[in-house]
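subagent[fold] <- orchestrator: predict structure for attached chain, return tokens only, no commentary.
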Amino acid sequence: MGESHKKKPIIPGNPTHDLAKFTSKLQYKDIPKVAIEHAKTCILDSLGNILYASTLPWCRILYQVIREEGGPSAVTCWGQPKRVSVTQAGLYNGTAGHGFELDDLHHLAGLHGGSVIIPASIAIAEHVGAGKR
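subagent[fold] -> orchestrator:
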């Protein structure tokens, strides 16, 4: 088949590479203040939802399963008394992020980013930071 019959990518270029390149050069001073304030509000909103959801039966059940599974005590399950592995904390905190159904929503993307991005980011930061204590 000739070149004209090849499928063209839906998104031209390499969006993952482009995003990584952009973020690797991004400096805090270059971010508009309004964006920083909005991000802080979104983070606090997500944390509040997660802490409330930690009191709900389905999150308590998941926490019990995680504790029974065992593993290193490295990272916080928000709203719970014991630390767990970094992957268990990501699972638990992400689940709790959706647990109350009032988590954030990006209307154009139809995406609840806070309950995925924030728990994973904080779990990894806590895990990496623990090695520097």
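orchestrator: received. Logging for downstream: Strands lie at 75-76, 83-84. The longest helix spans residues 33-53.
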